Amino acid sequence: MSKKISRRDFLKTGTGTIAALGTAATSFSLFDGILNAQTSPRSTVVIAHDPQAIDNRNQCNADIVSRMLNRSLMALTTQTTPAQAWTTLGLSPNDVVAIKVNCNTWTVKLTPHNELVNALCQSLGLVIPLNNIIFYERTTSDLISGGFTSNRGKTGVRYFGNDQANGYDEKQRLTRIVTDLATKIINLASLKCIEGDLVASLFFKNHIGTLPDEDMPKCHGNPDFLAEVNSRPAIAQKTLLNLCDALRGTYRRGVPWYPAALVMGKDPVASEYAAFELINKKRQQEKIAPLEVPEHLLLAQNKYKLGNCTPSRIQILELK
Amino acid sequence: MKVKMMRVLMIVCLLSILTLFTHPNQNKEILDPNLNNIIFDALPPGLEMSRPIEYYGTYEKVQKNGTIYDYINGGGEVYIKHGFQAVIHTVIKDKYKNRFTLDIFHMGTPAQTQAAFNDTAICPGKFSTILIGTSTAKLYHFEPDLFIYFIKGPYLVYLASDNDKLREPLLQFATQLYQSIN
After folding, report:
1. What is the ipTM score, two decimals?
2. What is the pLDDT of residue B52?
3. What are the angstrom distances between the C-alpha of A25 and each of A8, A17, A156?
4. How far is C-alpha A243 from the chain's CA centre?
5. pLDDT tier for residue B29 given thresholds of 50, 70 and 90
6. Under an 8 A CB cutoff, do A58 and B143 touch?
7. Residue B74 burial (CB < 10 Å; 0-12/13-18/19+)?
8. How many contacts (CB atoms, under 8 Å) link A and B?
9. Residue closest to B144 by CA, chosen among B96, B94, B176, B98
10. Contacts of B72 in chain A (CB under 8 A)
11. Which residues, 6+ apart, have CB-to-CB distance to B19 below 8 Å?
12. Kind and range of the H or E element at A244?
């Protein structure tokens, strides 16, 4: 069960607590987290919009999507070329990049669009060989259901599931794709509102597919677990980008719309918060109650210090 | 001859025990064993199953392919709330690779099925109503997707296509399913 804390409540409580306790709040982890969030640098999230990027039949314009991606990368890093942007994010020519996608296509299909996947590969290919890119999901058959073609060969972009990757790291309880094979990770999520206890399936939920099957159900009704998974060293230290395919998304369970957008950031917490806000903007237009900030994001900020979900600590750059 | 029969009997016993250990809580009896045939028989011409039917249950009664969480992750919560027992899932394709998704949820009782059908967390608000057999179904059109929810007895049926140009075979399939499910 999700603890309902609205952004307003959270800010009110957090700020009030800090004002009242001042420097006395030094040992309790929640206060540590709030103070840390208040003093840490602002996180930048880029939201690129282009209504021409996708039509109302879910067909993308590949050139526009590619341009949106590269412009966003350059804006995020304040660089002038995509290659420089990747380098600034920490990508080196010998890196192997694992890209986690979400191919759960239940109800409306929200697997990352081919045009975005191709643009991402093309852009990464400016720095690393294509064979150093691995798209992965829980199983290879999930990837195939999502429209990808399996490839474990020595040429071209690789696509395979955890089931074909020598099992799981025993200590971190994560697929060896991220612990052993990859030196960097990109979290490529879809903009999916599922309501219920998890509220939405975005960056944090995406890594549930990085876990061994038997650990996956632990995320239900357990926001701490969801935040903790994303704090495991292989994920927290190797992730160079969080990218959300918001070309098409759902603003309530099973109800899609076309925001024609990409959301990206280095900070997973801020990026997820910005994606939530995108969903909430649409919900507001549709006169539906906004989604509450889910507890796993507050824990990710306050307990695991993975980033910011306090609006004043997030800088959103909108590209039109 | 006797020894041979004994051996066969022992192998059968061992296999049964092994099956029990492989799926300790498995219980297929919840779902009508004829559903498999019903789906095959209801398929309109030109459509075929693209993969074997999958079965998902609850933590208490795990089915062949696991629990509802293995299929729809967190989305399963709301079905559990309404008494979900098991679901069968399959994907059907035509020769142009258009996809139809079929889920038949067993919700325990007709009353629970009706409650699930009325819950906007399962069947969202923006639908038009159509008649499937004698039942009012909810039809959703979100370009290019088209999907239908209808209920019969303890079953909540979800049928979807990612190509709304296939409205006719979708409705035909739904009607046939409605008539065949008991």
Report:
1. 0.74
2. 85
3. 21, 9, 53
4. 6
5. low
6. yes
7. buried
8. 64
9. B98
10. 104, 106
11. none
12. strand A239-252
Mean pLDDT (10-residue bins), chain A, 320 residues: 38 36 33 42 96 97 98 98 98 98 82 97 98 96 90 97 95 98 98 81 93 87 94 98 97 92 98 96 94 94 97 96
Of B69, B143, B147, the CB nearest to A220: B69
List, in sequence order, every beta strand (DSSP E) within A37-79.
Answer: 43-49
Between positions 6 and 25 of B, the ones with CB within 8 A of A are none
Are the CB atoms for A282 and A305 separated by under 8 Å? no
Give the whole-angstrom CA distance, residue B123 versus residue B126: 9
CA dist B132 and B172 (Å) reads 9
Asked if B160 reaches chain A (Cβ–Cβ under 8 Å), the answer is yes
Three state DSSP letters for chain B: CHHHHHHHHHHHHHHHHHHHHHCCCCCHHHCCCCHHHHHHHHCCCCCEECCCCEEEECCCCCECCEEHHHHHHHHHHHHHHCCCCEEEEEEEECCCCCEEEEEEEECCCHHHHHHHHHCCCCCCCCCEEEEECCEEEEEEEECCEEEEEEEECCEEEEEEECCHHHHHHHHHHHHHHHHHCC
Distance CA A295, CA A198 (A): 9
Beta bridge partners of B92: B49, B100
Q: Is the dihedral of CA A194, A195, A196, A197 positive or negative?
A: positive
Q: Whose structure tokens read 């677990």? A: A225
Residues of B in contact with A254 (CB under 8 A): 124, 140
Buried-exposed string A135-157: b where 16+ CB fall within 10 A, e elsewhere: bbbbbbebbebbebeebeeeeeb
Task: Write the CB contacts of A314 (distance below 8 Å, at least 6 apart in sequence).
Answer: A42, A43, A44, A45, A270, A273, A274, A308
Q: Least CB-CB distance to A57: which of B121, B144, B158?
A: B144
The tokens 């412009």 sit on which residue?
A71
A301 touches chain B (CB under 8 A): no
Whether residue B100 has pLDDT greater than 50: yes
CA distance A208 to A230: 9
Q: Considering the entire predicted model, what is its pTM?
A: 0.83
Of A196, A219, A256, the CB nearest to B75: A196
Sort out which chain A residues have CB atoms less than 8 A from B143's CB and list them.
Answer: 56-58
Name residues whose C-beta falls within 8 Å of residue A120's C-beta, 6 or more positions apart in sequence.
Answer: A69, A99, A186, A188, A243
Structure tokens that stand for A144 in this block: 């195939």
Q: Are B122 and B81 in contact (CB under 8 A)?
A: no
The 3-state DSSP class for residue A218 equals helix
Q: Does A82 touch chain B (CB under 8 A)?
A: no
